[in-house]
């Protein structure tokens, strides 16, 4: 069964949560997978930079609005799991909390890497809050590597032509890419394990900036302000 949600619209996210709650179902796994890359500069209906809203802010709102269900569905020895789709581009990511819409200087790659860094910062901060609260919910960031999907459709024409022969050799298939998320969501060895950055199913060091606890807290507070949640 599917429920439609448009992650470029915070209104749509709230509507989705309402529809899901009407089903009175438990929630054991939340995979924040949807994303976009290299989109020319544009704003969402809420006025946010496109990558920041779709790749991060809507996932932030969605996760927080479903967090109570994840908490009540998890138990010791069978934690609920949140998986955030990261990217190696986060290593180059920078975040200016006073210009999250990147109005001063815009590049689509910079906007994408910022959104992915935000997801990793969010992953670590949320896990800290859940652990300190004693909740049986784990949060991990997953980097699937290069996967041959429509994510690359915004490459310029020559790059598109060059990508095609390379993708069959170096890129993962969609099924192979998805297997990394499935591992994080279902593997027994990941039970009770959180605050990890997983690449190829292996725990990997994320960027130095992603471990900045002060930045994590500031981004959380700012994100709450932007979506209208209490910090």
TrEMBL record:
Molecular function GO terms recorded: oxidoreductase activity
InterPro entries: NAD(P)-bd_dom_sf, SDR_fam
Keyword vocabulary terms for this entry: Oxidoreductase
UniProt entry tagged with the keyword Oxidoreductase: yes
Keyword Ribonucleoprotein annotated: no
UniProt record similarity statement: Belongs to the short-chain dehydrogenases/reductases (SDR) family.
PANTHER family: PHOSPHATIDYLINOSITOL-GLYCAN BIOSYNTHESIS CLASS F PROTEIN, PHOSPHATIDYLINOSITOL-GLYCAN BIOSYNTHESIS CLASS F PROTEIN-RELATED
Protein name: Dehydrogenase/reductase (SDR family) X-linked
Higher taxonomy: Eukaryota, Metazoa, Chordata, Craniata, Vertebrata
């Amino acid at each position: 069964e599917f429920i439609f949600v448009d992650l470029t619209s915070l209104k749509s996210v709230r509507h989705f949560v309402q529809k899901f709650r009407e089903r009175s179902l438990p929630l054991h796994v939340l995979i924040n997978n949807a994303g976009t890359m290299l989109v020319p500069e544009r704003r969402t209906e809420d006025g946010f930079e496109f990558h920041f809203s779709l790749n991060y802010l809507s996932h932030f709102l969605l996760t927080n609005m479903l967090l109570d269900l994840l908490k009540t569905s998890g138990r010791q020895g069978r934690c609920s799991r949140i998986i955030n789709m990261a990217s190696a581009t986060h290593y180059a990511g920078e975040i200016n909390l006073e210009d999250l819409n990147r109005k001063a200087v815009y590049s689509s790659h910079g906007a994408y890497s910022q959104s992915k860094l935000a997801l990793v910062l969010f992953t670590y901060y949320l896990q800290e809050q859940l652990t300190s609260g004693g909740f049986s919910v784990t949060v991990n960031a997953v980097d699937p590597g290069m996967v041959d999907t429509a994510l690359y459709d915004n490459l310029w024409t020559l790059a598109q032509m060059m990508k095609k022969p390379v993708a069959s050799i170096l890129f993962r298939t969609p099924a192979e890419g998805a297997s990394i998320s499935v591992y994080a969501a279902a593997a027994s060895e990941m039970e009770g394990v959180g605050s990890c950055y997983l690449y190829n199913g292996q725990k990997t060091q994320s960027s130095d900036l992603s471990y900045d606890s002060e930045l994590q807290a500031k981004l959380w507070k700012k994100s709450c302000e932007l979506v209208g949640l209490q910090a």
